[in-house]
Amino acid sequence: MEGNGPFDPADEASEESFPASDAPARTVVTGIQDVAIPPAAPGEVAIENNEAAHRFEARFPEGIAELRYRYDGGSTLVLVHTEVPRVLRHQGIATRLAGAALAFARDRRFEVVPQCPFVAAYITRHQEFASLIRAGTAAGPASAAHRDDAGDAAERRRLPAKEGPHR
Fold first, then answer.
1. Pairing of strands 76-83, 63-71
2. What CA–CA distance (Å, rounded) separates 147 from 117?
3. Is the dihedral of CA 84, 88, 89, 92 positive or negative?
């Protein structure tokens, strides 16, 4: 504090305790409420192939998002079911799971049987994976319960919300 006048012990104490002297950001006094943390960008979601559990998964503190699969013969990957914990939905996680599973199948030259309606709808929207579908297997539209995070909002509004095992 040279050149600014005489030494002031009160100013010195204020500078030393500056962080502790700030009012807490989230209090009734400040009027600021907790803000939801925005979802991670889809590129930040780590997808792993848990081969022991036969699922592609993304782990979060809120739970595990998964796309379960099984092998049918030596060269066919059956994509059975996609599930994302309710609190994590509509963040692109199911899309990343489907993309990872299909890239895995393409890299290993597997045929794919999309039993999961979400994966079938994903393939319909991403034709670069259409050649992976095993002959005689159709990729149809997803049900509302399997619809992608960025899926057709109008379709979701038309369908009644229903609870069930498929999420």
1. antiparallel
2. 8
3. negative
Contact 153, 90 (CB under 8 A): no
Q: Consecutive 10-residue runs of the chain (167 residues): their mean pLDDT?
A: 53 45 44 42 77 96 96 93 96 96 96 96 96 77 41 35 41
Beta partners for residue 68, in sequence order: 55, 81
b/e map of 30-63 (b: 16 or more CB within 10 Å)?
Answer: eeeeeeeeeeeeeeebebeeeeeebbbbbebeee
Alpha-carbon span 80 to 120, nearest angstrom: 10
Question: Which residue type, as a one-letter code, is found at position 112?
Answer: V
Strands (E), 36-153: 48-50, 55-60, 63-71, 76-83, 111-114
